Amino acid sequence: MSESAPRPVDRHLFAGFLRQHRGAAVAVAGWSLLEAVPALASGLLVAAALDRGFLAGRPAEGFLWIGLLGAAMVFRALMTRTLTPWLGRLVEPLRDELVTAVAAGAVHRAAAGARDTAGAGVARLTVQVETVRALVSALLRSARQLGVSLLMAFVGLAALSAPVAAVTLPPVLLTLLLCVPRLRVLARRQRRQLRAEEALTAAAGETFDGIRDVVACGARDRVADDLSARIADHRDAVRAVARTASANTLLVSLGSHLPLLVLLLAAPRLLDRGALSVGELLGATSYLISGVAPALRSLVAVLGSWGVQLATVLGRLSRSTAPARRVPARTPGPDIPARRAPARAPGPDASARPPRSPDLSLVDVGYAYGPGAAPVIDGLSLDLPAGSHLTVVGPSGAGKSTLTTLLAGLAAPDDGRLTVGGVPVTEVDRAWLHREVTLIPQEAYVFTGTVRDNLRYLNPRARDADLLASAEAVGARALVDRLGGLDAPVGLDGPPLSSGERQLVALARAHVSPASVVLLDEACCHLDPAAEERAERAFAARGTTLVVVAHRISSALRAPRVLVLDGERTAIGTHAQLLGESPLYADLVGHWAAAGTP
Question: What is the pLDDT at residue 339?
Fold first, then answer.
């Protein structure tokens, strides 16, 4: 895994994106100016048609100027058609970069132990990224066109009559100045609405996923009250956004009509003094009615809805792509409560250092899934010297997978001390940790590429002979041969693999890695007992530290030490010792035997 942090989704990403796609951005700007030619010329052409044509007794010339206005409208349609593909060249690559940034941020935060909810992560990668794409597309189509048209209308108005521009421009500028702080208020309320939406999505997802446990524990009323509170919070946030948006709409409506009112009040004096002709008055009115007023209303409305939503969503995405910050675990003292908010796993730090050895040591380690939650691991002390072999057993939910997560350095303990080679896990050099510790979860991953790409993923310098030797050692050589060798495609480009075959690929990948600590979290559960034994013995023969979360009792029989993990009933010893000393272990062995699991 690369150690480089992901780029946050913020203005820097947009600046870099525009630099990378400078040609498309320049083309969009150029075609936008050409597209706005009618907005620039409309009032001038109307004034010329009246003053030089119809009012001067030359109707043919008047119709000529009107015909030029029609031609300008056709020209605008052609420019819009030419411009549209260039907008796509900006929007679609931007979406790809957002997906890459969010996915990279999720991976880095997971590697750093951030405890983001799955629902919020899915919302960011799906709803929010797609929302950004849609909003950017809409803003490029609408706000860009409206903004350029508004600017061109004022340029045309100034070219037509400087006195008219002088009396009509201030109300428009005043409206824009008044709207800016209102948009900031709207942005804050949009952010609140988005937070409420994420919280509601996450809470509803967790509730529905565990609905059987909720019913079984009699927690229906409490869970319903919690969801009702989140729904009410989301409702209040939506209403606050609607109130602010309505006030902005009223302000802009008044501001967009004010310039026309000012012009009509000033027109008699300007006409009497000869500072304004009838054609110029009608041309100026045309600019205000068909150009300035609708463009101003639409522009502020678009920025107040789509623009504020875009800024809000980008802010959320930016925080989600930032790497998790390092918070070292502390030992409880007189001023520190024994149970705190969960510590985060370490991030990159200049003080990080490689351990002296891969020895693992846990002293009174505690860990909970969230603030105020009961610890899933509480007061665990354990020594794992380099090269040791331990099997972990326990009932579902006892914290077996959580223990492997802690040992892999993907999370830091809330309490106690976890060290690697004498170095606290929060201070271990991350590059060393990623190289020396390998965790294989129950759900094995096969990446799209060749068999060679998959096996060399953790050891890019491995030779083909090393890859085949590791595949042979863990029992995956027959699979490699059946697929067509190391050059055979797998993943989306290859044949479908069963769960057991995917586990064999993951085991061979870990075996060829330089890892000195291997954590198998039910990583052989889809293999038959003989294949599972072969894989475990292959790792033990490497001389690496091996921790196996057992799927069968046979894994416990092969290990010199067994850890029975279950809160206060946690115990450690040999298989024979635990049969006599741990009723829970005896029950588990009896359960396995009754189920016929070897």
Answer: 38
Mean pLDDT, 10 residues at a time, over the chain (598 residues)? 43 65 81 83 85 87 89 86 80 73 65 50 58 73 76 83 81 76 77 81 78 68 84 88 78 76 83 83 82 73 66 65 46 36 45 81 86 80 92 85 88 89 87 88 87 92 94 94 93 87 93 93 89 92 90 85 84 87 81 58
Q: Which residues pair with 573 in a beta bridge?
A: 562
Helix (H) or strand (E) holding 65: helix 59-111
Q: Which of helix, strand or coil describes residue 383? A: strand
500-503 long-range Cβ contacts below 8 angstroms, 24+ apart: 500/526, 500/527, 500/528, 500/531, 502/444, 502/445, 502/446, 502/526, 503/440, 503/444, 503/527
Question: Tokens in use for 512?
Answer: 């060829």
Pure H helices in 273-326: 278-286, 293-302, 308-321
Cα 576 to chain centroid, rounded: 49
Written in H, E and C, the secondary structure of 220-251 is HHHHHHHHHHHHHHHHHHHHHHHHHHHHHHHH
For position 570, what pLDDT does the model report?
85
H/E element holding 257? Answer: helix 220-272
SS3 content of the chain, % helix, strand, coil (to 5): 65, 10, 25
Q: How many CB atoms lie within 10 A of CB 532?
A: 27
395 alpha-carbon distance from chain centroid: 34
Give me the pLDDT at residue 530, please.
Answer: 92
Residue-level pLDDT at 1 = 37
Q: Could you give the CA distance from residue 293 to residue 153 in angstroms, rounded to a whole number?
A: 10
* pLDDT score of 222: 78
Q: Are 484 and 521 in contact (CB under 8 A)?
A: no
Distance, CA of 190 to CA of 288 (rounded, Å): 32
- Is 157 in contact with 168 (CB distance < 8 Å)? yes
Q: What are the contacts of 337-342 at 24+ separation with CB within 8 A?
A: 338/415, 339/366, 339/368, 339/375, 339/414, 339/415, 340/371, 340/414, 340/415, 341/371, 342/115, 342/367, 342/368, 342/369, 342/370, 342/371, 342/414
**φ/ψ (deg, to 5) at 360:** -110, 140
Q: Could you give the CA distance from residue 238 to residue 231 in angstroms, rounded to a whole number?
A: 11
DSSP-assigned states of every residue in 142-191: THHHHHHHHHHHHHHHHHH-HHHHHHHHHHHHHHHHHHHHHHHHHHHHHH
Residue 283's contacts (CB-CB under 8 Å, 6 or more residues apart) are 42, 43, 44, 45, 46, 47, 50, 160
| Predicted local confidence at residue 126, as pLDDT | 56
**What's the pLDDT at 316?**
64
Q: CA geometry: angle at 237 spanning 232 and 241, to 5°?
A: 145
Burial of 404 (C-beta count, 10 Å sphere; 0-12/13-18/19+): buried
Q: Which of 105, 476, 473, 526 is nearest to 319 (CA)?
A: 105
d(CA 46, CA 37): 14
AA letter at 585: Y
Nearest partner of 141 among 83, 187, 183, 98, judged by Cα: 83
Residue closest to 588 by CA, chosen among 558, 567, 568, 565: 565
Distance of CA 375 to the CA centre of its chain: 28
